[in-house]
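Journal club prep — side note

Before the paper discussion, L.F. wants everyone to see what a predicted structure for a comparable chain looks like in token form. Sequence:
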Amino acid sequence: MNKHTIHKMIAIVAVSCIGFISASAFAGQDSFQREMTQRVIQAKQKLQQAEAAKGAERQKLMGEHMKMMQSNMKKMQAMKPKAGMTMQEHEDYINEHQKLMEQMMEQMMGEHKLMMDMGDMPMDMGDMHKQ
């Protein structure tokens, strides 16, 4: 098998595994957090596809991932706990929100590394890795 086929197979397996996240991962989340969890998973799948791709296809997928992440970040910034929560519900909400933010940060770091590996750093970030 050639490398391209192997990378595609790895990406497919990874995407499939992510799709089988247990329902317990969604316990304690409100509907907005569940939606955001799905969006973060979809963005991660897009990043994995980009990692497995080459050339123009990789750049296209990276662009799609960046748009997904920008949209997700805007939604995360707008999230607010619902009124009338108990202290425990509020703590659970904050913990879930923190988990989502950590997952997004991990993706941004992966995206940054992939961009550096490609040599496609945006103009305003080109010197960041030279420090």
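L.F.'s comment for the group: The CA atoms of residues 29 and 96 lie 7 Å apart. Keep this in mind when we get to the figures.
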